[in-house]
């Protein structure tokens, strides 16, 4: 076994030198993503690619030897999709990280896959432009990883997910051939949509080595609305009312356990007898008009308190409460962070189910998320050193997934299927559909070396 | 040959009765789409499907016998993609046309493929909702055809194309298996994006039998801006200026030959010494603010005349000029309508090239289109009974395609590749990419019965 496995690594080291790491100590940092209960394997090497040539060499060698390859960006994934595989190569893009070009007039940025989301956003902002997708991990996550998982964020409510902001992708196929997908035009219907097929494919079809992302003009006006409700059900009623009359860019929800945890950590002094908090942001030339409509929507369903500000600094400070929701909950134990999406009208039922599941399994579940998209992150807080608590956490997770499916929901709104949710994929998409997906994978990757056993 | 070919039709007639048509006179209406210079074959039958079962029976029979199947909606295509194939079956969805359900709260409509775009829009409007995609042929074209070609329209400037408004698709594979793609949630990243793969695949992968389309609230406010320019170059400069400060839903361009033709037909009295006309619509709560910014953008680059109205009826009347552009040009001869897209910044070069090509081949070319998307429809007007003129029209078409490619454009923004543009596909997307597309087709359609030789 070892005899055959030293072959590819010896060859790769000859080709790529110190980009190939086999030292156990260094490799430890590349074994896992940020998910808690996902399995990670024992890889034979980590390749820290810096160029397309490095990726081509890695894939052609791995393909020849039939060695599995897991591509990872910053490892901020939450579904185990970039965890190492036994006997595989971890292909890291963290050093493949230059912003190649920003075309101000065309409003597009061409980047290598390891560019950090926040770095791209900052570079765009200097030019008065805006890279919109803003996953919670934007300070560290990479554009390559964002594309692989079709990452979302808070601004999706109005502006859509990563998929809605990509113009072109350059990617390497397992046999080393390079493809360029998409176009820099606004509209293009020539041929099959390979771009949208690669987005969200979680490293199973090809390795992204370059992407051209669309930017928007930075909105000049914004307004923030904070509204406190007696119950999550009231907050969801407000979301429904708001969606009918306005198009806010951000509509974030936090429930009581989340509010309590955030208060404890930040001393923000949010009313923690509240059943729920909505944080809403409107932008664009009608920001104030829209914020007023949101305020009315909240008051109309009996909000306890509503505060509106057009001061950007105050708005940012208010949004901070949502941003620290996960770290605040993590102070209370290990967290199993879920990511589910239901039709907005089914949010009350999903939220009822979460409360019921928390009670059933005697667990703290803090729920926050992107309410206008019906995308929730119920976060199970438990003691991972206690086998019984861990078993209850798993059961609660399972019950939430099943309830989500029964409500016509999606098992993942923005984190991906990865390792963690594979068993829910077929119940969601169907057996024939999964077969079609696997046939497509086979068309790209006939030897099945790219992230095998993951996502699909 | 006839012996083997009567097999499938005899079987299908036994299964589907009068849904199967072999009468030559009736079949004539199903041979061609609206494109002029595309080739159409001689089919063995037309199946006018009314149900999913009809489609399943047609595909399984055709697949067993290896008979090609061309699916068509209303036949309003402009690239020959739904023209009949020799020895094939034309599968028409025109009678498969019920609006199954409109969910007002979730703002989604579930329809059969033969539902006419305008009928869906009208049904939505009765509920205060808006089905956005508005191709020029919306009075007759079908949602199935819109999905197959990823049809655009005027409102794409702000709201995107058909692909941006579809939640779920139900489709039949060539072997008769049924797939459901997508989700009714706002966000969903579970598995590969089969929905976006089917959209724009021009009937080469599967046959769409049902679709759930997203609706928006009907905007309450709108404002229309009409601006007259001395030259197309000035008009494009205005488009660039406008894009930086506003997000109009419609930005339509017409050049002098188009203005002259429209005036002749409608007696609208547009200044036909103008080099170009822009028709702009803004909507939403900031409609007036945005319209004012558009007006300033036009004046800033030296527009001859700018007129703004917030009266919806007047706005509609002004937009009519653009809507009749093609019929107005068609009064002057046969028309070869092109559909190309360039990055907006390259519009001046593309428009210069069109003028130069018109001069070179002594042809009238009227150009109109969706300026904010860089999507132009240069329309070659010529005498199709004159072989020399026809040859020059072909050459001009070819020159425009090549110039578009050289400018980094797309060979089709919204009409599709079909029959007409196949030879430009590989130069645009690349040989490896085309190979990948064909491998994907093979995964769906191993016997190659679905629209063979078209699109990819």
TrEMBL record, chains A, B:
Segments traversing the membrane: none
Keyword vocabulary terms for this entry: FAD, Flavoprotein, Oxidoreductase
InterPro entries: FAD-bd_oxidored_4_C, FAD-bd_PCMH, FAD-bd_PCMH-like_sf, FAD-bd_PCMH_sub2, FAD-linked_Oxase-like_C, FAD-linked_OxidoTrans_Type4, Oxid_FAD_bind_N, Vanillyl_alc_oxidase_C-sub2
Cofactor: FAD
Occurrences of domain FAD-binding PCMH-type (ranges): 39-218
Pfam families named in the record: FAD-oxidase_C, FAD_binding_4
Protein name: FAD-binding oxidoreductase
Source organism of the structure: Nocardia africana
